[in-house]
Design goal:
This protein is of the alpha+beta class. The protein contains one helix and five strands, in the order E-E-E-E-E-H. Strands 3-2-1-4-5 form a five-stranded antiparallel beta sheet, covered by helices on one side. 19% of the residues are buried.
């Protein structure tokens, strides 16, 4: 099973981006979404950014994931 999650793109350097994935920095591939820029929200799957998201869509996905995995309500922006 492959889990995807919304992440915030911190920096982009060619085909590699640094993202904030639920409070952890990760280096991931941008090959599937070469248009991604720092500040964007995107979907991360298996180390690859696969889709750029609008911030409101990222928030909805993050809230749904939070509800599915936690007992407390989501807080603030998506991770």
């Amino acid at each position: 099973m492959c889990l995807t999650e919304p992440v915030r793109v911190l920096t982009v350097d060619g085909a590699i981006a640094t993202v904030d994935a639920n409070g952890k920095r990760r280096h991931v591939s941008t090959l599937a979404v070469p248009q991604v820029r720092a500040g964007d929200w995107a979907i991360l799957a298996a180390g690859l950014l696969v889709r750029v998201l609008e911030p409101d869509v990222a928030a909805e996905i993050a809230a749904a994931l939070h509800l599915a995995t936690h007992d407390d309500p989501p807080k603030g922006e998506p991770a």
